[in-house]
C-alpha cells in the first residue's frame, strides 16, 4: 500500500449544514440561518430576518448538536482516524463582536472534542466554514469592513487558547476562494444583499475582492498567533480546487484554462502559502479596474502568517472554451466559459466525475507548494432512498470513492506528500450549494427530508462497511487500485 502509516482517514462536515440547535445554548444568528430551503432556483431565498412561513435548513440541519455522541461513536465504528468539522462562530460569540465568549458554546465543543479523544479520533477544525454572524453582516457589511478582521482574530485566538491541547489541526477559512463567486457573498463574506434569491444576488466584484483581502489578513494574523503561542499547532488553508481543461488544443483554449485556474483555484493558495499576491492576480485586477486597499502593515502580516499545510476540496473538473461559437453551460465558475467535457460522466447535479483529475490536482498542488496536503472534502451527492429491505445500497458512492482513492494511491506513488483524506460527508447533511436534504453525501443516512420532517434516526449505508474496510487495511485492496 502507498498510504503512509498514520494516514488520517475520516469524514467531514460543517456546522451550518449539520449542527442545528440554531437558537440553543446561547447561540446567535448566523448568515446561514437566513438562507431558506429550496434549490438553486429563485425558491431559495436570503431573507433579512427569519420569516415564520419559510423553512430554514440550518436551524435543525441533521442535529449534531443533540446527536454528537451517537455520531462520533459511529465514526469510531467506521475506523475514522480524523473528523473534519467546524465551529459555529455565533455559538462562541453570538453577535460576532461580543467582548467575551459564550461559556455554554465553549463547553459544547469541549464535549465534542473529548468524545473524539475518547475514540482516538483527531479533530481537524475549521474556524469559519461559510459562517458569518448575521449581526456583522447587518452592521458592518460582513467582511467588506476591515473591522471584522479584529472580531475574527478575537474569536480564533479564544479557540486556540481554549482547545490547543485538544485540537492539533486547524483551518482558518473553508474554501476561501469561493469568495470570488457571487454566491459567496452571503455564504463566506456576509456581504449585505437584502432579500434575494440565493443564486441571483447583486454583485460587486471590487467589494468581493476587498473583502477577500480582509480574510487573507485575518487568516495570516491568527496563523502567526498560533505559531507564537502554540508552536505544536498546525494551521492550514482550504481551497475549492477545480482543475480546468481546455476544450480543444487551440492555444486560446489552453490560455483561458490556465488563466481561469489561476484566479479561481490557485490565487488564494498562493497568497496563503507564499504570503504575497501573485503577479497574475495583480494584472487581473488592473485589467478589470479593481483596486485592493492595503493597510501599511498588511504585506508584513501576510508574509508572517503563512500556513503549515494545504487542504482542499475536490469534486469535479471544469472544461472551458474561448470560442464564441461553442455553446457554454456557465459551469466555469469564473467567466461563464464552461462547456461539458465529452469524456466524463456527470452526476444528477451536472458535476463532472473525474477521478484522474484528482491525481492531476494533487501533483499540481504539491509541485507548486511542497507542503503536506489533505483532501478534506471529496464525495458525490445523490438522491437516494431506503430500499425495501430497509437498507441504503449506495454502490454508486462506493464506485466514486474507490476510483478517487485509487488515484490518491497513484499520486502518493508519484511522490506527493498526502497526509489525510476526509470524505464529504461522514453523515447526510444539508447541501450548501442547493439547500436540499435530497442531495445526500453521507455514508450514514439520516431520516430527514426537504419538508423538515423525519425522525433524525441514523442508519449505516453500504458504503459505511466498505469505507470501514478501506481504513482497516490502510488503502484499497490490490484489485481495486487499477
From TrEMBL:
This is 6-phospho-beta-glucosidase. InterPro entries: GH, GH_1_N_CS, Glyco_hydro_1. The lineage of its organism: Bacteria, Bacillati, Bacillota, Bacilli, Lactobacillales. Signal peptide: none annotated. One of its GO terms (cellular component) is cytosol. It comes from the Bacteria. GO terms for biological process: carbohydrate catabolic process. Keywords: Glycosidase, Hydrolase.
Amino acid at each position: 500500500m502507498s498510504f503512509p502509516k498514520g494516514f488520517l482517514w475520516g469524514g467531514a462536515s460543517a456546522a451550518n449544514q449539520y449542527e442545528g440547535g440554531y437558537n440553543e445554548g446561547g447561540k446567535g444568528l448566523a448568515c446561514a440561518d437566513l438562507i431558506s430551503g429550496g434549490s438553486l432556483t429563485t425558491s431559495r431565498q436570503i431573507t433579512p430576518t427569519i420569516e415564520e412561513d419559510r423553512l430554514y435548513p440550518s436551524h435543525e440541519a441533521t442535529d449534531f448538536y443533540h446527536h454528537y455522541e451517537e455520531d462520533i461513536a459511529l465514526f469510531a465504528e467506521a475506523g475514522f482516524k480524523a473528523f473534519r468539522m467546524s465551529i459555529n462562530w455565533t455559538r462562541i460569540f453570538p453577535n460576532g463582536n461580543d467582548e467575551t465568549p459564550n461559556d455554554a458554546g465553549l463547553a459544547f465543543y469541549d464535549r465534542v472534542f473529548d468524545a473524539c479523544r475518547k475514540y482516538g479520533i483527531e479533530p481537524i477544525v475549521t474556524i469559519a466554514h461559510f459562517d458569518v454572524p448575521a449581526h456583522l453582516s447587518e452592521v458592518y457589511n460582513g467582511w467588506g469592513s476591515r473591522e471584522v478582521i479584529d472580531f475574527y482574530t478575537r474569536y480564533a485566538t479564544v479557540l486556540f487558547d481554549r482547545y490547543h491541547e485538544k485540537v492539533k489541526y486547524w483551518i482558518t477559512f473553508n474554501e476561501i476562494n469561493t469568495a470570488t463567486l457571487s454566491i459567496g457573498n452571503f455564504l463566506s463574506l456576509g456581504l449585505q444583499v437584502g432579500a434575494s434569491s440565493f443564486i441571483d444576488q447583486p454583485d460587486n466584484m471590487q467589494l468581493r475582492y476587498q473583502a477577500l483581502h480582509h480574510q487573507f489578513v485575518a487568516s495570516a494574523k491568527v496563523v502567526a498567533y498560533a505559531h507564537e503561542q502554540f508552536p505544536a499547532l498546525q494551521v492550514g488553508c482550504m481551497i475549492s480546487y477545480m482543475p480546468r481543461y481546455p476544450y480543444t488544443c487551440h492555444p486560446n483554449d489552453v490560455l483561458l484554462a490556465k488563466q481561469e485556474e489561476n484566479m479561481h483555484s490557485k490565487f488564494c493558495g498562493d497568497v496563503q502559502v507564499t504570503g504575497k499576491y501573485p503577479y497574475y492576480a495583480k494584472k487581473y485586477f488592473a485589467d478589470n479596474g479593481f483596486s485592493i486597499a492595503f493597510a501599511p502593515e498588511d504585506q508584513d502580516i501576510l508574509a508572517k502568517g503563512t500556513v503549515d499545510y494545504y487542504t482542499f476540496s475536490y469534486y469535479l473538473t471544469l472544461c472551458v472554451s474561448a470560442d464564441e461559437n461553442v455553446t457554454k453551460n456557465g459551469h466555469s465558475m469564473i467567466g461563464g466559459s464552461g462547456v461539458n467535457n465529452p469524456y466524463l460522466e456527470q452526476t444528477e447535479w451536472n458535476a463532472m466525475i473525474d477521478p484522474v483529475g484528482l491525481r492531476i490536482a494533487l501533483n499540481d498542488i504539491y509541485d507548486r507548494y511542497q507542503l503536506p496536503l489533505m483532501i478534506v472534502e471529496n464525495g458525490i451527492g445523490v438522491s437516494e432512498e431506503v430500499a425495501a429491505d430497509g437498507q441504503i445500497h449506495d454502490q454508486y458512492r462506493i464506485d466514486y470513492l474507490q476510483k478517487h482513492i485509487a488515484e490518491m494511491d497513484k499520486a502518493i506513488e508519484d511522490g506527493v506528500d498526502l497526509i489525510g483524506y476526509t470524505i464529504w460527508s461522514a453523515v447526510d447533511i444539508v447541501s450548501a450549494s442547493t439547500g436540499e436534504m435530497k442531495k445526500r453525501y453521507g455514508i450514514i443516512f439520516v431520516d430527514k427530508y426537504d419538508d423538515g420532517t423525519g425522525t433524525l434516526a441514523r442508519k449505516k449505508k453500504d458504503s459505511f462497511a466498505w469505507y470501514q474496510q478501506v481504513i482497516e487495511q490502510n488503502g484499497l485492496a490490490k484489485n481495486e487500485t487499477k
